[in-house]
Model the fold of this input.
Amino acid sequence: MPFVRIDALGTDPARLAALGEAVQDALQETLGVPPEDRFQVLTGHDGVTSTLRHGDYLGIPKDDSIVFVAVTLRAGRGAERKRAVHRRIAELVHERTGTAPRNVVITLTENGDADWSFGYGRTQYAPAGEGPAGAPS
Done:
């Protein structure tokens, strides 16, 4: 955990990789996520068969370099830590891809221990009689 989805319009594999690295590094720096704890879905949309829609919500102008970052993580972080995550993701995405911070849209969605399975169909964070670390019992 966390689980990250990144969607970008008209992007190439190098930009997608840089976006993934930027988000992972921000999570490590601000939340202490271990480096090996990486679960990401990186999707580039071609604007024809798949696309992204956006407006200038809250007076913040957007353009086609927009990036949507959705992070699902276990509950328990306060507003200040979440602000730090938002800030650092925007900074690193800008630094590594040139994407203007105004074009980085981030959502954090929290859930509980019983909402995660990392393999074997086991609930590793809330084991209720399962074998060690998700091994089949």
Observations:
- The helical segments are 13-31, 79-97.
